[in-house]
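Why do we bother with a discrete structure alphabet at all? Because it lets us treat a fold like text: something you can write down, compare, and reason about line by line. To make this less abstract, here is a complete entry for RNA-directed DNA polymerase. Read it the way you would read a sentence in a foreign language you are learning: slowly, and without expecting to understand everything at once.
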Amino acid sequence: MLSRPICNHKKPKCEICTITIDVPARYSKDIRNEQMKDDKLKKIIDTFESPEKGSDYSNWTERGYLMNRGVLYRYSPDSDSEEAELVIPTQERQQILRDDHDAPTAGHYGAEGTVNRISNKYYWTGMRKFITDYFKNCPECNRFKASNQKPAGLLQTPVSSQRFETLAIDLFGPLPESKDGKKWIFIVEDYTTKWVELFALPSATAKECATTLLEEVLL
């Protein structure tokens, strides 16, 4: 008999209590054995099979979990669908993706399409992130995935209309200190003529460089 939440509605027909189970091709005992290897699923199953139905039982039933033939399923109480999904243990999730995404007949659907197809039959916590991460690491999908980036533009070389319109500046040092306390070389180059000026500075501060540029080059 199908185990499901007790319906307290007074109306004779209650759609939320009508749940369809898609029975897998494997034996129920084999599926159960795999679910029991997952500590989190084992905890839920033990709660359902315990003679005492406490707060944990109510918590799991409110979240849509139910038992059928010793196997754990889940349905969404807010969904219009009456079908319950088989709860997949951790060790079988990778194989589910291989069968439903990597197989020659699967077609390598995108992440969203794969989520929709798998969620119709199976459930596990964090399914969307798991599938998205798997999809990002799929060699075939990455190989043929269309790029959503704009093509690179043509390289354009700026053209100056006069001398000293565009300057390149740099610093070189520190060098061994000179007798007058200078240990940095301030380099100024004119892009148009390629003329280079060198200035010895005592320090490589922004103020020192700006003062030298204004007084020695621009003014």
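What the structure line is telling us, in plain words: DSSP finds eight helices and eight strands in the chain. The radius of gyration is 35 Å.
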